[in-house]
Amino acid sequence: MIRVSIIFELVRAHPRTMFWLITLTQAALWWLMPSLFYAAPPGDLPFVLAIGHEFQLGSYLGPPLAFWLAEIAYDIGGMPAVYLLSQLCVVATYWAVFELGCATVGVAHAVIAVMLMVGVVAFSLPTPEFGPPVLAMALTALIMLHFWKAAAQTKRLYWAAVGVEAGLLLLTSYLGLILYATIAAFMLITQRGRALLGSVEPWLAGVVVVVFGFPHLIWLDAQGSLVAPVLDRLGEALATMRLVDRAGLPARVLCAHAGLIVLVALAAGWGIKPPQRVPVFQRPSVHPFARHFIYTFAIAPLAIATLLALVLGEPDPVGGVAPLIVLSALAVVAFAGDTISVNRDQLLGIVWGAMLVAPPIIVALAILVLPPITGAEFAVTQPANAIGRYFSEAFSRRTGKDLEIAAGEPRLAALVALKSRPRASLYLDATPQRSPWVDARDVSQKGAIVVWNAPDTATPPPSEIKARFPALTPDVPRAFDRFTLTGKPTLRIGWGIIRPGGQ
Questions:
Q1: Which residues lie below 8 Å from residue 399, measured CB to CB, with a gap of 6+?
Q2: Which end of the chain is more exposed for a tag (fewer CB within 10 A), N or C?
Q3: DSSP designation for 321
Q4: pLDDT number for residue 238
């Protein structure tokens, strides 16, 4: 008698229920964990919120939509709302890939593709850090789904959805340009695509994209100093051809699929003699157009973005990894054939369940336990609320005015700006062109709090900060307990006040 893991029995008997169970479990875990255990926003999220607070048409980090949405979510519900927004993007991504899989490889194989996505690092660990890559991931998946419905199923109304989503992607990430080029090439190369170009709907979708992106294009035209350096770097890199120096980038992209590779290896039974009876999932033959569609959009955008990153010397593919690999798992399932045999199903179920549940638990334990033991300093253990409250109140007591500008060490200044009441603006004094909403004149007129990392209680301001702020009056560094089991290692912040003009 064959004994099958309950996980794969659910895939066979209730595929849609299994899909929602996977998706909502992962989203809930990765929403609860940062909401409960992150004392400060992770990664670049403080800068995303600082930029979004100014509602600019663009910034040094790219188009504005992700920053606007992050700011709106923060205003509504604080950081938990921002983390929830991020997980809604993950749910939308999974749903779009699942629906595309149902239309191309069948519902059971679509669930298997979603299960494999759990093993892709980009769809789990970085997702609390909402930003352009996370939003672009969801928009890319939705574009792929609706483009399939419009192009393969000839449902013309979906061209409107493609146009709107593509326009939103252009307002989110420059990755949209790579995706548009891939879509155009696919339509020109395939017979069905060329036939669609004779209808008006694809052209109307293109007009919608231009309309959505027009305000940001105007902003880019006015910011020649931001675009020109990229073109200069591209020309220099092409002239010197430094591709051999960037071998680590493809390796990092491959490592992002490490969990998927492990799951495939276990299911394939590599290294063992396959048993006579294993769970088998069959499907009708995949249409050649569907196979070409999946392979094209799983490989081409990733290859183009990686090549551009290699040429430009960037550490990651242009636009981030997550939007470029939304179809990786579906491509693996399409390549696996019409019959998928699941070897080691009991062990596979355990490993897959651990990949789904264990990472957020491990991260939470690491945040609480490792810093007191090892002295490690995690950015998310910085007590952002206490930092913002202390410095905004100190400025108000000393000057009689609300704090409006925070400067100094970028991340600490971003936390002060984020958590001050009322919200302050971030001034990136080392690179002022990146914070055009504040200039030196504003600092001299409105005053500012300037902060920096202080290793001890007698740390003067760094020489470069003192040079940029000659009117700075340093104070005794302030110590804060981190969000760990013991509050250690202590975070010590040096600070000083620039008084408003006239004081």
A1: 447, 497, 499, 500, 503
A2: N
A3: S
A4: 47
Among candidate residues 425, 403, 422, 404, the one with its CA nearest the CA of residue 414: 425
CB crowding 343-370: b at 16 or more within 10 Å, else e: bbbeebbebbeebbeebbeebbeebeeb
Q: How far is CA 296 from CA 83, 175, 252, 272, 283, in A?
A: 32, 16, 21, 33, 21
Q: Where are the domains of the chain?
A: 6-364, 382-498
Residue 407 CB partners (closer than 8 Å, separation 6+): 413, 426, 427, 428, 429, 443, 448, 449, 450, 451, 469
pTM for the predicted model, two decimal places: 0.92
**Separation of alpha carbons 182 and 147, rounded Å:** 12
- Specify whether the CB–CB gap between 32 and 363 falls below 8 A: no
Q: Which two tokens stand for residue 272?
A: 């063992």
Q: What is the mean pLDDT of each successive set of 10 residues along the chain, which is 503 residues long?
A: 74 92 96 96 95 92 94 97 97 97 95 94 85 96 96 90 94 91 93 88 89 80 56 49 58 86 85 68 90 95 88 79 93 92 87 93 93 90 96 94 95 96 94 92 93 86 91 90 91 93 68
Residue written as token pair 């991020």: 86
User: Is the separation of the CB atoms in 434 and 59 below 8 Å?
Assistant: yes
Rounded Cα gap, residues 141 and 93, in angstroms: 5
